[in-house]
Amino acid sequence: MIMNFICQQEALNNIKILSEHRQHGVVITGDSGCGKTYIARKYAKLLNIRDFYIINPVISDLKTMIDTCVSATNPVVMCIENLDDGVTQASYPLLKLIEDCPSHLYVVVTCCNMYGIPDTILSRCAVVNINPPTRSDIDQYAESKDATTFTRLSKHKIWSCVKSMSDVDAVLKFAPEQLKYFDDLDKLNFAKDTVSNLSWKLQHYEDKSETPVVLVVRYLMQLLEGHGRRACLDCLNDLADNRMSKNAIISKLVFENKYCR
Question: Is residue 1 domain-resident?
């Protein structure tokens, strides 16, 4: 089934222009699950290049694949996924490659957060942004994955917390006890429970497996008012920037709801 998402149209138009100019360095940025690798594959198709390699931002993998692609005799597209999640050292061989890119090689970097990409790489690449998915995009994707489960969950409060295709994938797989966890979030007692205990509860289900924290905070945001909602919004921004550990961010959220309301 071919799906045309509204959120991807501008990015598709931009990579078409870049393909006409044979741009060798491209950074594709957007929220998790918005289709960055899909856009990268589309770029390879527009360039009429069949050899498309996906690489993790691990320095050993990157160096090996760079050597392989540089020595290739046919056109190649290298897609380095989620460079902002990789180690800093992985950026150095990539920068050197982009600065002196062979004519047969095209480098595409994907990321969720451009703050995690060195300016030296950004300055040498064309940047393509994918807009956040619309509600129509999300519903279309969910219906294509599991129409029955989507119909059931679309009536639940959790569905308003779904903001990306990755969220859809996670929520459609929720077991009944996981969905009940969200139903029980309004029973959290910030006044009486400890910060550490509340932080644990927000990050773990009853069976001690990890929760999708971003969805938890979005759900909590629907239940709180005033300062509590602002604290949730700050928490979501901190999680997106990834500048502190997840536990520290959640503990900060709990502290503000417990003592600053």
Answer: no
